[in-house]
Design a protein that fits this description.
15% of the residues lie in helices and 45% in strands. It has helices spanning 7-19, 75-82, 149-159, 215-222, and strands at residues 2-5, 26-32, 35-41, 47-54, 60-62, 70-74, 89-94, 101-108, 110-111, 114-115, 120-125, 143-148, 165-171, 175-181, 184-192, 195-196, 199-203, 208-214, 230-235, 241-245, 252-258.
């Protein structure tokens, strides 16, 4: 296995792998001739992430027939390693066969006959984890819309000042995000007759939807905002919501699925 990444694509790759530590203690990378697929679940089993990176997204992507098709790495270790990368450096991940460790190298192009930064090489131990990949069916959501990733982060941070739960309400006329606690209530209007801060709103006729979600998980999903300027949110009763980063190319896909909280009707 040999992978080479550099420039802006490497920045996004590091951003994704570094932030997975907020979701899981390990990351499993599944390799094929098509690229990389990764899926994982949060510690509380409330959320799932799904990552696809096609081979065309890499500068180089090679895999031999006898190379392991799945490796598992501690997210704490990988985040420490990626934090040492300097802006001018490219990344090489390599291994042979079925290893106990993989090699991760950072190096930069030479300038005036010298490397711009010190080359670095890490020997990274792999984890032995029994990890099952879940089938995530395609869902036709009752309400879907796009919103700027930075705007969503700011809104979520403000809502978190009032409660740990965010309530999403969607109808044909309005979209609001609300948080209500002992210190008061904040309601943010994303869409109405006089206010529109979203893109491509698709909604079922006559819909009146209200779902509660963990603000903490929303905040974790927003940590990946450098991946794309916009996210697409999808909601439907009795199904997890979808939090999908709208990237510039289909060669990189990152999505999250979050189960709604059970409402207390008492």
């Amino acid at each position: 296995m040999y992978i080479l990444l550099c420039d802006k694509k490497l920045g996004k790759f590091c951003e994704i792998l570094s932030n997975i530590k907020y979701l899981s203690e390990f990351v499993t990378l599944n390799f094929s001739e098509d690229g990389i697929y990764s899926q994982g679940m949060t510690h509380d089993h409330c959320a799932i992430y799904e990552l696809r990176i096609n081979t065309d997204w890499f500068e180089e992507f090679e895999i031999d027939d006898d190379d392991a098709r799945r490796i598992c790495i501690s997210t704490n270790i990988i985040s420490k390693i990626l934090a040492t990368r300097q802006a001018s450096q490219h990344l090489v991940i390599s291994y042979k066969g079925t290893p106990d460790k993989i090699s991760i190298r950072f190096a930069s192009l030479k300038k005036d006959g010298k490397n711009q930064e010190f080359p670095k090489e890490f020997s990274v131990p792999l984890m032995d984890v029994d990890h099952e990949i879940l089938n995530i069916p395609a869902i036709e959501y009752s309400a879907e819309f796009g919103i700027g990733s930075k705007s969503l982060l700011v809104t979520n941070d403000q809502l978190s000042l009032f409660d740990e739960t965010i309530t999403i309400r969607c109808s044909e006329e309005n979209i609001t995000m609300c948080a209500k606690g002992n210190d008061g209530e904040l309601s943010v209007t994303l869409y109405s007759e006089n206010c529109e801060h979203i893109n491509e709103y698709e909604v079922e006729e006559g819909l009146d939807l209200s779902l509660d979600f963990s603000i903490k998980h929303f905040h974790t999903f927003c940590k990946f905002l450098k991946v794309a300027d916009e996210v697409k949110l999808g909601f439907k009763y009795d199904y997890p919501m979808k939090f999908d980063y709208i990237t510039e190319t289909e060669d990189l896909q990152l999505a999250f699925y979050l189960a709604p909280k059970i409402k207390d009707d008492a």
